[in-house]
Amino acid sequence: MKARTKIEKQVAASNEKLTAISPKVLTWAVRKVAGHVCFRTSAHKCTCGDCGRHFDYEGKGKSVCCPYCGTRLQIKDTLKRTIKEAYYFSSLEVVEDLQVQRVSRLETTFRKGMPMEVDYWEACRLWLNAEGKLVVTARARTLGYYVDCFDWASEITLKRPPKSIGSLPTPISIRIIGCCPN
Questions:
Q1: Distance between CA atoms of residues 90 and 68, nearest Å
Q2: For 82-93, how does the pLDDT look when each residue is reduced to its tens digit (9 = 90+)?
Q3: CA atoms within 13 Å, Cβ hemisphere of 114
């Protein structure tokens, strides 16, 4: 979509200057949004999904703390060797008097005996100015059964704003631009 209004032109210019998501936000997303899995066999042999180390756990609880990395893990009684999970998270930033909510997909892969692998892709950006006008930049969508059908090879470009916007988990330390009087 071509930028026509003043705010769309401002967003198109700011969209080019935007940097990558900070490592601090990614570590927050991995710790707080992603699940942490412990593989447990019938012989009570456990494998931490985060660090990949093995330990014994005789308890019957649904969660355990890894003795090596200290992460709280959800126990899965399974013989599977690989588990893949995907989550969406968002972060808020202020860029040139515009507040931007960056929505990303976080994909974690747990392989038995190996440390957790993390990948992320940015899906869309919601831009808001001080007057409350919303502009959306996002990746192209593909037709399919699933809701999260983004074309990950496409560029993030200007789109029509959606009719409704759901809520996504965001980091606690955020700075809101002055659109609401105290």
A1: 30
A2: 999 999 999 998
A3: 10
